[in-house]
Amino acid sequence: MKFLFIAAGLITMPLQADQLTAYVCDSCNNQEAQLLAESYAPAAQCEYTNPPGTVVKPDDMNCSAAPLELIVVNPATEQAVKYRVQQKCTGMGCNPEVSLSKLRLTADERAVLATYYDIESSINDAVGQMNEMIEKSIRGDFSALKAGSEEQCSANPMDYFTKPDTKSDIDKAIAEKVKRNIGDRPWSQYMTISPMDPVGFRIEHGSAQLSFNEKHRTQAVYERHFFGATPEQKNLNNLNFKVNYIGKISDQPGLSSWGIRLSVDRSTSWVDGHRLTDLTPNGGSVNLTDDIGSMPCFREYLSQQEVEITGPPVSGGGGGAPSIPGGGNTGLQLCPSKTKGHACSTTADGATTCTITIFRSLAPC
């Protein structure tokens, strides 16, 4: 298939009659694909037909339901089925049962799906080699090494959540790596490494225009980014990114561009050998212990946040009491404190969310 450029602004145009949604389900068999298709049958619309001011009679209800055509596609098996679904209505009411029929894919729709399968395969080959790292994270292999209190933080994963320029640089670096690993595919020349607006992914060919919805995908693709100058630092500091597609590829005249959208999986990402979900949950409060002394990157992050003294001085800093965010017992008077930790990231659906976590520890009074 030969692709020409198409205007990027057309990505957000309202769907036309010949545009279909292809629901991606990488675990669906035939029966599950049918159930998924039926779940998208448009809801029935009912209205009263009796004249205003009159009493409603049983036959004064008129109900109807619009049909919908859609595709369920399994990229793992490269199988796709086109369906027509519609609720069954009899005028005065609708049956919850859905009428479902299979339709024949057009030649243009098959061409679009062939391109989609090629992209899926290429992305998996380019990115999938990092997936085994997820299992290492889950097992805790990355936390096997602990940083010493004297070790400095040469590259901080937390900068991704607090510094927009750092986030943009890392996103571009990962996109460039994926693009480089993909190689020279017919569609790869239109892949951009620049940040893109959070829109869906669409492929057009001839009369076929398919928007791919990945809500039902179960096997995500990940890419890991490492921080630090040494293997030990990289082992302790790394972020794991879920990879999604955004943009449009088309054979229509104009401009075409597409790329990848990244969202951090905090449960398999690490800073100083600690899971990000343990240190930066979705809001809430975290009590810091003496472990903060062996966390140079996280200490650096905390030093840039807002600190508030919350109580009178306590005696010393030993005995298992929380230490100051800067680490160590300096001999200064220490007071209970709370630090407001701000962190912003992009979610899988393209929205930017910011959270505030309260870190409670001791700080110089």
Total beta strands: 17
The rough form would be described as: flat
Radius of gyration: 27 Å
What proportion of the residues form beta strands (DSSP E)?
Answer: 25-35%
User: What sequence of helices (H) and strands (E) makes up the elements?
Assistant: EHEEEEEHHHHEEEHEEEEHEHEEE
Average pLDDT value? 82
Task: Work out the helicity level.
Answer: 10-25%
Number of helix segments? 8
Q: Whole-Å distance between the termini?
A: 68 Å
| Sheet of most strands | 9 strands, mixed
Low-confidence segments, ≥5 residues, pLDDT <50? Answer: 1-17, 317-328
Structural class: alpha+beta
Report on the architecture of this protein.
Residues 1-17 and 317-328 have low confidence and may be disordered. 32% of the residues are buried. Helix content is 22%, strand content 32%. A hairpin with a 5-residue loop joins β16 (334-346) and β17 (352-364). It is built from eight helices and 17 strands. The protein is flat. It is of the alpha+beta class and 365 residues long. Strands 1, 4, 5, 6, 7, 8, 9, 10 and 11 form a nine-stranded mixed β-sheet that branches. A four-stranded mixed β-sheet has the order 14-17-16-15.
Give the gist of this structure.
The protein is an alpha+beta fold and 365 residues long. It is built from eight helices and 17 strands.
